[in-house]
Amino acid sequence: MDTRFSPRSLRSEPEPAATTVTSKRSSRLLAGTLALLGALALSSTAFADQPQLPAPGKTRIVVKIDTHKVAIDAQNDDDDDDQVAAPPANAKGVKPVKADKTDKADKSDKAEKAEKEKAEKAEKADKEKADKEKKDALDEKIQKGVVTIERAGTVLGIGTVLSSDGRILTALSPLGTGNDLDIKYADGTSAKAKVGHHDRTWDLALLVPQSGKWKDGLQASSKTAIREDAASAIKSFSIGKANKLTAGNMVLKSIRNLLGADDKPIDNVIELGSRVVPTDLGSPILDEDGKVLGMLGRGCSPSAEKDKPCTPVAFGVPLTAIKSFLKTVPATAVAPAPWLGIQGIPDASSVVKGVRVLTVHPDSPAEGAKLKGDKNAGDLIVAVGGTPVTSPDTLADAIRDFAIGDKVPLLLFSNGKYKTVNITLKAPPEKSTPSNAAELPAADDDSSTTDKADKKSFFKK
User: Fold this and answer.
1) 8-state DSSP, 14
2) Confidence class for position 135, pLDDT limits 50, 70, 90
3) Are residue 295 and residue 395 in the same domain, yes or no?
4) What are the angstrom distances between the C-alpha of 183 and each of 216, 238, 461?
5) Of 264, 362, 351, 277, which is closest to residue 314 (Cα–Cα)?
6) Same domain for 48 and 155
């Protein structure tokens, strides 16, 4: 009998250590193995030499014993043969398994992707911020270039301030009779205005503000009015709540011919596809860059039947007609120069140079500031708004730098002392018969005899 399997040998040898475990249940199998060893020791040699096959689905245990080690190979038909139990993470003497290169690459790719997405998100946010700032700046510029036109607190229409000019382009038909017009600017200020030029056929009018120097206006577009690529970007203005200007989309359908005032033909006008109300007239038609493509005016659509009158409709005055109109503006259609109301001469005393006041006109800004006029003892005007003046010409130039209604400081030398007075500039008094003054024509018969309820039907949707 092989002495390696004797009970004596088993008891005298130290307990072998398991070095290889290939089953998840190795801890439980070890206890069973020790019991099995005792049973094998009592078996005959012949029985030990016979091969034994494990039953299906049962655990097969192969035991090898020598004086140095015990190897236990436990397998189960139900388990995966290639599964290896990982050592405990905190086991002493067990080296950590190195991370797979693929896992490292995946982690690196994920980190790189996350950084890229973060950068793209930041870039998108910056672009959106820049686009918003650009849009806000454009909207502000447009708002400054559009005004409302009123008379006695009633809104008549809308106007466009000509950039770097200050005069206002609008429609003639809603203005009615009289020149007592008020212009309301974007900042809430207002100014009186008069009609300096007009064209009845094209329904155009140029208003001249009588005070102030508002020069923030709009420019002409160089683009074609009707374009499919910019159809949704075309804008015009309407009067909203509290008489506030509101921008909205304007549909431009086609180019057609209509009749203007006095049944005169007007060719190549812009046919509109959006609803327009009377107070919208005079509004600019703007492209996607906030530049003027045309203006809302009023015309008449000829009837197919000869016996029927034409139908009043709103249309877009093309830019070509506007430019032709502005080329014919008379030289007199300008804002009046601000008026100080004195007569003076150059004077140089032993102390200072300036303009000696000789006379002060009644009801003038100079009279309001109590300036004294006298050839010898009159006030000496030394500077206007910080600009030195030494002659009547330089004084007039300095005054023209301001606008009617502006408050201007004058530096005076009087009675051997300097002093500063503030004056409010006014328009010069009007002559009884102004020469070459543009007159506002009366409205045509149709508009003067039609009540406000009927006017709403004049403008198609």
Assistant:
1) P
2) confident
3) no
4) 14, 16, 28
5) 277
6) no
Whether residue 162 sits in one domain with residue 297: yes
- The CATH number of the domain holding residue 150 is 2.40.10.120
The answer to whether the beta carbons of residues 175 and 439 sit under 8 Å apart is: no
**Cα gap 297→283, rounded to integer Å:** 8
User: CA-CA-CA-CA torsion for 223, 226, 229, 230, nearest 10 degrees?
Assistant: 70
Residue 13 lies in a domain: yes
Specify whether the backbone of 205 is left (phi greater than 0), alpha (psi in -120 to 50) or beta: beta
pLDDT tens string 424-453: 998 888 764 443 333 333 334 343 333 333
Quote helix, strand, coil % in the chain, to nearest 5. 25, 30, 40
Two tokens, residue 393: 């010409």
300 shares a domain with 360: no
Domain ranges, residue 172: 145-327
- What are the helix and strand counts (H, E) for the chain? 9, 21
pLDDT tens figures, 192-229: 999 999 999 999 999 999 887 788 899 999 999 999 88
Residue that has been written with the tokens 């804008």 in this structure = 235
71 has a pLDDT exceeding 50: no
**CB-count burial class (<10 Å; 0-12, 13-18, 19+) for 405:** middle
Q: Please indicate, yes or no, whether residues 61 and 180 belong to a single structural domain of this protein.
A: no
Q: Among 277, 299, 293, which residue's Cα sits nearest to residue 155? A: 277
Mean pLDDT, the chain, as a whole number? 78
Is residue 156 located within the same domain as residue 305?
yes
Same domain for 150 and 287, yes or no, is yes
The Cα 260–Cα 313 span in angstroms is 10
Q: Please answer whether residues 185 and 191 qualify as being in contact, where contact means their C-beta atoms are separated by less than 8 angstroms.
A: yes
100 in a structural domain: no
As for how many domains the chain has, the answer is 3
Same domain, 185 and 310: yes
Residues sharing a CB contact under 8 Å with residue 237, sequence separation 6 or more, in sequence order: 146, 158, 245, 246, 247, 248, 280, 283, 284
**Closest C-alpha among 301, 292, 168, 161 to residue 236:** 292
Q: How confident is the model at residue 101 (pLDDT cuts 50, 70, 90)?
A: low
Give the end of a domain, one of 327, 359, 394: 327
At residue 186, the 3 state secondary structure works out as coil
